[in-house]
Amino acid sequence: MPQTIAFYPGSFDPLTNGHVNLVQRGLRMFDRVVVALAHNVNKQAMFTLDERKAMVEEVFAGDDRVGVHVFEGLMVKAALDLGATAVLRGLRGVADFEYEFQMATMNSLLVDQMETCFLMTEKSHFFVSSNLVREVASLGGDVAQLVPAPVLHALNRRYGR
Asked: Which residues belong to the active site?
């Protein structure tokens, strides 16, 4: 039987516990989840692609069902090239849904066999975003409950703590 692969794209700048939870829940439905780091020249990232990739690899080092991939260009093409049958996306609220629904519709127009699987963010992570984590960390706030240990170490190094 062929392996089912979910493609989970994002900037992951930085990876949060909400992202980790989504991957873990995705693994209940798919044989493999590929965390796909988007190279977006229009976004000013805190961490380089290499730094983000290394953090994701460290967080999921114990699970060979999780892959890490860097891509640029059309997300659905990258997903298709890796053999993914679905795109995995998290929803925190109605505003996320509107944007994600538009993207899913466009993606299915481009690649009709690519499904999008939406998972609601668990309530403990509902308010968390990478932007908020970066802002709180930059102002000296404690984000230890919001990010995995390797990300916390990277944030502390970035801010000289």
From this structure: 19, 43, 92, 130
Work out the mean pLDDT of the chain and round it to a whole number: 93
3-state secondary structure of 69: strand
Q: How much is the average pLDDT of 72-90? A: 95
Q: Provide the residue type at 46 as one letter.
A: M
The phi, psi pair for 35, rounded to 5°, reads -80, 115
Nearest-Å Rg of the Cα atoms of the chain is 15
Dihedral sign computed on CA atoms, order 14, 7, 89, 121: negative
CB contact burial 52-71 (16+ within 10 A = b; e otherwise): bbebbebbbeeeeebbbbeb
CB 36 within 8 A of CB 71: yes
> In order of start, what are the domains of the chain with their CATH numbers?
5-126 (3.40.50.620)
Q: What pTM, to 2 d.p., does this model score?
A: 0.93
In this predicted structure, what is the pLDDT of residue 93? 78
